[in-house]
Amino acid sequence: MRLPDRFDVTVMLDYYAPYVSGLTEAARITAEGLVARGWKIAVVCARHDRSLPTHEVINGVHVFRAPVLAHVSRGFIAPHLPLLASRLAARSDLLHMHLPNPEAAFVAALRRKTPLVVTYHIDTFLPDSPINRFGMRVVDASCAAAIRRADLVITNSEDQARGSRIWPVIRRRALRPIASPCVDRNGGSPTMREGDGLHIGFMGRITVDKGIEYLIRAFRGIDDPAARLLIAGDYTTVAGGSNIAQLREEAGNDPRIRFTGLLRGERVRDFYASIDVFALPSISESFGIVQVEAMMAGKPSVTTNLPGSRYPVEATGFGRLVEPRDPVALREALLEMAALPPEDRQVGQEAATKLFGGETFLDAHEEAYRAILNGARS
Description:
8-stranded mixed sheet
């Protein structure tokens, strides 16, 4: 396959499709949306799975993968990644990095004169230990170094940016809040419902930062044999490993709790059609695409009061906020939202769709890119 002589934008991040996370999905949907609008987009990432090709075209996006020498916790050692990114940046009009990643400082330094946009999704989170605390400081420093060189910093919201550990660096750069792309998941069938009892749903990576154990404790305090808890998400190929064993132990022999695994395609629509309330009990979160998609499907969200994560609920009024690690408050909020009248659900759904639906995120990216490129050419 003949490669373009130049790309409009090279996108750099650690993981990309087929790996699924909020960060990878935001990057993928944006890249594919821009391709559909006529932009030539390259993605450079790590070859996290050796079965993946070093180059392929996915829905019009040229994806280049650098070899991985070893995996370390949620990251890896891939010394060729910054070099590959710099070579692609040299033949591109713009470099767009999605952070956090530990290679950020090196890629920013090697890009030469190519204008740089950084989307800072979230502060790195690792389970507490001396080694992990050191690792988070290293990644923070690398991200801060890249941001200091950026022509523009994008975050999901200003609330997320201000709550970041590296806000003192972000605040000195041009900042533009652009919410992550959220897909309209309406139109599914309630195939995952079991009766008329309350159905609560969670969707996301099954990892410690999602706080799912607190959701399980909250749910087990609901004395209703007809209630169900649907926990959807990948726990087999999660970077850094999953806490699925702990969660199964938390669930015990409660037959009302279901672990569905990773859902794709129409199964995602069916999931949202099958629940009454969505729960996002994270202890580390910056936005929560899944909670917005639930709102757009008419399901209120109960999430934790964290910078960024609280923004969709505060902006729409369609849900409730609770403090992290509080299963009692979580249970009370879930039951309150379960009793929400249909007219209130409709108002919340309309508010979420107006704020986060459609292709406003693509419009915002194009506008930001063109402003930087026009400035570089003048």
